């Protein structure tokens, strides 16, 4: 069965910045069963991330995509985030750490080693 994207889906993808995305950050928050951190703490981190990306004009056409993930499966020391294409997995992503990730990694292209759990870049090959 072949499914093609509708014009509406293509328009939404363009509106949220998929064609100009350089990086994509996933943040573990709003979990069904919180394990890596308290649910309220994760949601606070998410609201901070959304606000800062908007303030810095990085959302939508600014080149940074963001996704709220229910669980990134590292159920310890959260909130957990992962940034692609570098595949950098970060621990303790409360607002101060997220600010460093935004400034150093998302904008500056430098991994924040002090918060890094693991790194496995996407290479484009399977």
Q: Give the count of helical stretches.
A: 3
End-to-end distance: 23 Å
Beta content comes to 15-25%
Report on the biggest sheet: 5 strands, mixed
Helix-residue proportion: 25-40%
Give the low-pLDDT segments. Answer: none
Mean pLDDT: 93
Q: In one word, what is the shape?
A: globular
What is the element string, with H for helices and E for strands?
HEHEEEHE
- Number of E-type strands: 5
Radius of gyration: 15 Å
Structural class: alpha+beta
User: Strand order across the biggest sheet?
Assistant: 2-1-3-4-5
Could you give a short description of this structure?
The chain is of the alpha+beta class and 126 residues long.
Secondary-structure topology with pairs:
Layout: H1 7-15, E1 23-28, H2 39-55, E2 64-69, E3 81-84, E4 88-90, H3 95-107, E5 116-119
Parallel strand pairs: 1-2
Antiparallel strand pairs: 1-3, 3-4, 4-5
What do you see in this structure?
With 126 residues, the chain is α+β, with helices and mostly antiparallel strands. It has 3 helices and 5 strands, in the order αβαβββαβ. It has helices at residues 7-15, 39-55, 95-107; strands at 23-28, 64-69, 81-84, 88-90, 116-119. It has a 5-stranded mixed β-sheet with strand order 2-1-3-4-5, with helices on one face.
